[in-house]
Amino acid sequence: MEQTKTTCLEVCVDSFASAMAALEGGADRLELCSCLLVGGLTPDVALLEQIRQRSDIPIRCLMRPRFGDFLYTPEEIQLMELQIPRLASAGANGFVIGCLTPEGRLDRRSMERLVNAAGGRGLTLHRAFDVSRDAAEALADAAGLGIDTVLTSGQAADCWTGRECLGKLLASGAPLEMMAGGGVNAGVIRKLRALYPLRTFHMSGKITLPSAMTFRREGVPMGLPGLDEFSIWQTNKDQVRAAAAALQEEIVC
Question: Phi and psi (nearest 5°) for 72?
Answer without folding.
Answer: -105, 145
